[in-house]
Amino acid sequence: MVSKSDQTAEQTRLALDFVQFAVESGVLRFGEFKTKAGRMSPYFFNAGLFDDGAKMGRLAEFYAKAILASGMEFDMVFGPAYKGIPLAATVAVELARQGRNVPFAYNRKEAKDHGEGGTLVGAPLKGRVLIVDDVMSAGTAARESIALINAAGATPHAIAIALDRQEKATENGRDVDHSAVQYVRGELGMQVCTIAKLADLLQYLSASGGGDEMKAHHERVLAYRVRYGVGDH
Fold first, then answer.
1. Which of 72, 202, 189, 187 is nearest to 132 (CA)?
2. Dist CA 91 CA 61 (whole Å)
């Protein structure tokens, strides 16, 4: 994925349109929410609330456009259980609709002991695999998917997520200077494609013209970014 400074006007518009879509769908909410790291966040993104056919179809369109615009190469799509399963399926359908037909697969949490058995479902894992998930908090889910893909003899090549929170990851209960996305890029050597980032959310709030309420949301999100954020990436 291109860096923020190299992001095209089209990609910026896609990111801002996605933020607006997430807000209007009630998926991106404002208030006080406790994160896995124990922080009190002024916003919360719950992709599980893309919960009807129209929302999932539009979400898949955003993923596919961001993936194709990134220029990353891949041979198939993989969705980690559980949220990644519908994402992988719908994104594969949308990629095919946009002219890029690739196989997809996903995993079960529990191994099946009858029928075809095993934990993997769908196309055989091979070649360069693109993992599709909603967000990346600590990189734990990414490492689990990478292990599965490596064990199958394929190459974990890239990850696509909806929102990059651009905030410090935690290790052993302590903040570190890099985000989960930066860790996956720098330490695991994988490409990461994001539809939108926290910087895009701040730009949306700043330009929304929503009056005092939106101004207050912007101030709280900006304060959170100043405290826990990492640089643009």
1. 72
2. 7
Helices and strands of the chain, counted as H and E runs:
7, 10
- Is 112 designated active site? yes
Q: Which of 36, 112, 157, 178 is catalytic?
A: 112
Q: For 102-159, how does the pLDDT look when each residue is reduced to its tens digit (9 = 90+)? A: 999 999 877 655 445 478 999 999 999 999 999 887 666 788 899 999 999 999 999 9
How is residue 201 written in tokens? 């959310």
Whether 218 is catalytic: no
CA quadruple 56, 58, 63, 68: dihedral, nearest 10 = 140
Choose, from 36, 114, 197, 217, the residue flagged as catalytic.
114
**Cβ(133)–Cβ(142) below 8 Å:** yes
* Cβ atoms of 226 and 194 closer than 8 Å: no
Give the pTM: 0.91
The contacts of residue 173 (CB under 8 Å, 6+ apart) are: none
Contact 124, 149 (CB under 8 A): no
Q: Residue 114 has which token pair?
A: 């009858």
Q: Which of 144, 135, 172, 167 is nearest to 50 (CA)?
A: 135
C-alpha distance from residue 207 to each of 20, 157, 203 (Å): 11, 36, 6
Side-chain-facing half-sphere of 64: CA atoms under 13 Å: 22
Can you give the length of the chain in residues? 233
